[in-house]
């Protein structure tokens, strides 16, 4: 359920961020609440889009999921900050029961970032982390973003 909602929110939140109108925020809130109801879930959705950033919060019987996008984002509480290379910029932050994830951007070489993250995970003694590379263009050159994901309550 949470993964389905997270995907839907990421997709709709991005589209709402483009228009930034309160009416669009309310439309997304209603659509997600109705979709959840069709799956037998009763949730409360709050969408807040500001110029250059936005957030979506879903509260329900399974807990709370929050998704943020923008610049100058804070890492989720307890997220291992040393995992992010120096100069990395968090672009999206997602928290839900049992997990937290950060998509960050860096202009560093992907191999350099991979090596850094592998060492950071080893140094932190955390086996509950994974990350993946997102190439932002088809030519595999230019800026890249990474997703770091942690399962909460496991090590």
Walk me through this protein's architecture.
With 155 residues, the protein is an alpha+beta fold. It folds into 2 domains: 1-60, no CATH class; 71-155. It is built from 3 helices and 7 strands; from the N terminus they run H-H-E-E-E-E-E-H-E-E. Strands 1-2-3-4-5-7-6 form a 7-stranded antiparallel sheet, with helices on both faces. The protein is globular.
Task: Summarize the model shown.
By secondary structure, this protein is an alpha+beta fold.
Keywords summarizing the entry:
alpha+beta, 155 residues
Rg over CA atoms: 16 Å
**How many individual domains?**
2
Which oligomeric state applies? single chain
Count of helical regions: 3
Give the termini distance in whole angstroms: 24 Å
Structural class assignment: alpha+beta
Largest sheet: 7 strands, antiparallel
Work out the strand percent: 25-35%
Helical content band: 25-40%
Task: Kindly report the spatial arrangement of strands forming the biggest sheet.
Answer: 1-2-3-4-5-7-6
> Order of helices and strands, N to C?
HHEEEEEHEE
Number of strands: 7
- Unreliable stretches (pLDDT < 50, length at least 5) are 13-18, 135-142
Question: Based on CA inertia axes, which overall geometry fits?
Answer: globular
- Overall pLDDT level: 73
């Amino acid at each position: 359920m949470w993964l389905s909602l997270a995907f839907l929110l990421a997709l709709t939140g991005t589209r709402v961020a483009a228009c930034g109108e309160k009416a669009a925020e309310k439309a997304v809130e209603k659509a997600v609440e109705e979709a959840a109801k069709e799956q037998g879930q009763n949730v409360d959705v709050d969408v807040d889009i500001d110029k250059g950033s936005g957030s979506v919060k879903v509260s329900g019987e399974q807990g709370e999921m929050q998704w943020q996008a923008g610049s100058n984002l804070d890492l989720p509480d307890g997220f291992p900050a040393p995992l992010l290379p120096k100069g990395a910029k968090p672009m999206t932050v997602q928290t839900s029961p049992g997990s937290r994830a950060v998509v960050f951007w860096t202009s560093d070489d992907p191999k350099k970032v991979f090596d850094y993250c592998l060492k950071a995970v080893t140094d932190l003694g955390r086996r509950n982390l994974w990350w993946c590379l997102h190439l932002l263009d088809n030519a595999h050159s230019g800026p890249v973003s990474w997703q770091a994901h942690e399962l909460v309550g496991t090590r």
